[in-house]
Amino acid sequence: MGQTRRKDKDTEVIDENLRRVYQDMLDEAVPDRFLDLIAQLRAQDEGSEPTGGESK
Amino acid sequence: MSADPRDEIVDHIPALRAFALSLTRNGAVADDMVQDTLVKAWTKIGTFEAGTNMRAWLFTILRNTYYSNRRKAGREVSDAEGIFTESLSEKPAHDGRLQMADFRRAFVQLSDEQREALVLVGAQGFSYEDAAETCGVAVGTIKSRVNRARARLAELLKLDDEDELEMTDQATMAVVAAGRAGGVLS
Known about the structure:
The complex is a heterodimer of chains A (56) and B (186). In chain A, 71% of the residues lie in helices and 0% in strands. Chain A is mainly α and 56 residues long. Chain A has one domain (3-47). Chain A is rod-shaped, with a radius of gyration of 22 Å. Chain B is an all-alpha fold and 186 residues long. Chain B folds into 2 domains: 7-75, Orthogonal Bundle (Rna Polymerase Sigma Factor, Chain: A), CATH 1.10.1740.10; 78-173, Winged helix-like DNA-binding domain superfamily/Winged helix DNA-binding domain (Arc Repressor Mutant, subunit A), CATH 1.10.10.10. In chain B, 61% of the residues lie in helices and 0% in strands. In chain B, helix 1 packs across helix 2, helix 3 (54-73) packs parallel to helix 7 (128-135) and helix 6 crosses helix 8 (139-156). The radius of gyration of chain B is 20 Å and the shape is elongated. The interface between A and B is medium-sized, with 30 and 37 residues.
């Protein structure tokens, strides 16, 4: 008995902490490498030929 | 031009990194996976159905990348064990706010499947249906993974002992020890 209430409370505590950890990760600034990559992919499409950057 | 769904991809990068990090638990590996995912998503945009959940689609690509790498490398990341196990005997604070470090230590001990299900549903706010589709499993499977992940975390974080925290430390230890040894809680 009381198990269900306790379980609900556990879930609350866990999800609250989970969201905090996750939010910390979400709040991190996006490194330039990804923005550069997107720009590169876009440039490749538009030129339809390798636009210089083939760093991969 | 402006209707190119790829324009939206960049908005999902923070979520992709967070999801990748939850899976790999290693920043460098996570970012390499995000990079692969972005390239694949960009080139396979034709397989994305307009109007559907793009984040779920991107997460699917990312997790497929993760699991196929894991298979290839045969590296079921096990370094998380051991390193993190030791200090798990700390108890949660009374206000229910756990030390972040404690939570992270417990979190990384979940299986990959439990971790991803919990993150998708509990943190990312995916519906069970979207999470199931992302992971390529049945809705019921996701539900049970999420439940097991929460139960395991509660166990690792000793949340079940919360009521006993009111007692003296010695009494607590005794109860905890008994609970561990023989199923007082069952």
